[in-house]
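Question (not urgent): is this output format expected?
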Amino acid sequence: MIMWTILLVLAILHRASSHGIQPLSRIAIHKATLALDNLAYVKASPTVLGLNGQNTEWVTVEYSSPNPSMDDWIGVFSPANFSASTCPAENPRVYPPLLCSAPIKFQYANYTSPDYKVNGKGSLKLQLINQRSDFSFALFSNGFLNPKLVAVSNTVSFANPNAPVYPCLAQGKQWDEMTVTWTSGYGIDEAEPFVQWGPKGGHQQHSPAVTLTFDRSSVCGAPARTIGWRDPGFIHTSFLKELWLNRVYTYKLGHRLFSTYVWSQEYQFRASPFPGQNSLQRVVIFGDMGKDEADGSNEYNNFQRGSLNATKQLIKDLKNIDIVFHIGDICYANGYISQWDQFTAQIEPIASAVPYMLASGNHERDWPGTGSFYENNDSGGECGVLAETMFFVPAENRAKYWYSTDYGMFRFCIADSEHDWREGTEQYKFIEHCLASVDRQKQPWLVFLAHRVLGYSSDLSYAVEGSFGEPMAKENLQKLWQKYKVDIAIYGHAHNYERTCPIYENQCTDNEKRYYKGTLKGTIHVAGGAGASLSPFTTLKTKWSLFRDYDYGFIKLTAFDHSNLLFEYKKSSDGKVYDSFRISRDYRDILACTVDSCPLTTLAS
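Got this back:
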């Protein structure tokens, strides 16, 4: 019993560590003190970025300190003025701290200057994205816990910091509708947002955009309301309707300022197939990707190690991808709001070209006392506001992040694992309706998606709990999966890859491992993460676990027609296939009676 308790505690601690510590949270910026030194300096160049319309630029930062040490570091701040004048006092009798805004990124002063400790001179190449404000660079001594501000640089800014940036496509509520969501620094009183779009090479039209934003009072706790707060600007969404199936469209983001226009670059996408259309359809699914920094800053290589690799592989294979599902734990901002811009910039080459659909995870939604099913602090005080505002999903209510969407021969039922999904709840009724309402003759491939593992997982943390998945989940949901003959259920949250046999009530319903023909008789469960720090498997051998991989990766589903589906697991490191299976069947195989999925019959003739 004592040993079991120890294992449980270790697993819980590892679950926390495997999700990693947001690097920005290591910096106690509110404890910073002033130690400006006239002999120290920080210089950044160039001072104006984006002169040719770029939204990403590299900056050279040079610095010197008369008293260098190994724990000196450079912080990047935006807005450039990060002094106490920007800090809200808790009450009139309490002065705010010297600094109250976390940097948007940081790096040790000796990162690329090994002689910094000796000569006090160093330089860094840092990548900046257009984030609606200017930047400054600060040299700190005395480490992260009690930092001392030694020197501050000149200001650097983009030529137009308010420019429309980082479009993200998503399917609308109708199959022939595509939504485009982007951010800018223009409020609706200053400029009218719209999208100029039309068939490639054809007539272009304008569609207006709705505009949302939020303030500090909209989020639920620290650090999102305190040192992690950063003005999100304005989030615009335009609805492009009555699209012709499979046609290629071009589009540009626009803002009309009185008699002038501000434009983004031109992008393009292919309209979705209609529900049931028989054509080649390719879907990529993953969870827990997070973000990374191309310049090595923020030590994200120890936090979301596989993120950039996964992003690069998807960009490399983009011509063979039709739609993407990122099922929770999106960027692990954990209350540091600047990181959401960093993430949308990272995925822009993907999300601007194919629909990028989300599910909600614990690091987007969970916060005590806010209605999340799990009472923890994983969202860093965001309580869903960032994900719900910055990304469109075709949900009836984005605060309840469950929805269905059709893509040709696929029906996807996306659950919100951070809200109650047990039998009798509002979400349970949605799940059943989503599964029950699909016409399997036209859409034979039925896929269930959620962030947490509501099915089966051999992740160590689940194993020591004895549940091998979220407690209570299988007991409440497996009868639905079986009744409506869900083909595949895919999850994130467990930071490893695992595939089960077709399974029902802990029993494999088919002994085949690679090629399933005819009636499936159970649901195949898959868990995996694209970039966040890995978590171990239990050493226990579960009979239903067919394939495990302690690595980062993503899923690709390819529907060739109504009868043939290919499943592939690809590693983020090289994009190669490391696990796969095929399903071949006819419509009558879906109709066939299996355990707990037999319709009632009558003896009457």
